[in-house]
Fold:
Amino acid sequence: MAPGQLKVLFVTGEYPPMLGGVGRYTAELARALQAQGARIRILTDRQVMASREADAARILTQTGGWGWRILTDIPACAGAVGADWVHIQYQTAAYGMHPAINFAPYFLQRKGFRTAWTYHDLRVPYLFPKAGARLRHWVTRSPLRVADAVVVTNQSDWESVRGQTLPSQLHRIPIGSDIENRQISTAERRQRRTARGYGSAQLVLGYFGFLNASKGGLTLIETLAALVRKGWDAHLLMIGERVGASDETNFSYLQRVEACIAEQGLNSRVQWTGHQSDAEVAMDLNAIDVLVMPYEDGLSLRRSTLMAGLANGCAIVATHPQTPTPELEPDSDLLLVPPRDSLTTAAAVMRIAEDARLATNLRANARQAARQFHWDVISARHLEIYNS
Structure:
């Protein structure tokens, strides 16, 4: 790599103000890398204004959709900005489920660009109706054979792809929180709860993030119902937007969750905040009693909402990970329960509500655990890759 300022072109299917965790991740990583001296440019969706400057990272929107044309557009853009690296942030729904992005590393390599590829998920693209599982799997994994560096965000994905690329090319780097951590006083917490309509004696569960089938929204509502049946004055604060911008299936799942709330007679106990500033989100995370994240596919470090809960010192109940997650210690940093088990989840919530010392320890340990996911640590790991 030529001496001088490192230049990296990020390619991402979503970016603020679009809704979505991958977009927020990319913005935070760009900000942290630029603070360490790198020059970042963002090639993203046409919904983002072409003239917009965000966090000193120039936004370069693409206007032709995410179809086959990007195989010439991305290398052309990389050449125009003098990129040393092109780093593609991959989440299949963010690219409209189109497979073209999966072949971009081949075309970039032919033009002499070094490429990095981050798997934010390993879901296969739709392709076309008769495309079988083998073809879809091959398309999803094709960047492993070409990219100069492959980043996964959690142990499960690392286990899934190792052996399919050189060990020196594979890196496991967790994501960080896109909500800045806050620690509020007792008086501020009381004021926030009052503003939300909660008293000190009420048990307030929280959930943060978009709803989709993998996040256990139905289990969440059934947990609330179980607590109410046991005599708790329990309420649920749904923090943030209801659905994201990328995956259209999220809306149908939201409708199922809303129907479940109505069927259980819980409408008066569920409050939706809608979109709000990061500072407001942090205040709500500090004000709730228990953050319940009943992921159906298990706890994973690829969940930015989990990271936000840790950073803001939440007492967390989540589901057992599919693979070991050594960064987090069960019963110390958070409580773990089986997926799709509302009764066990409710029991874990009650354990926290009835044990003030446990609640205090969980909150303190969550903040401590979050330190390993700070963006300056994450960006330094990326710089090691780019400078190798």
In short: The chain has a mean pLDDT of 91.
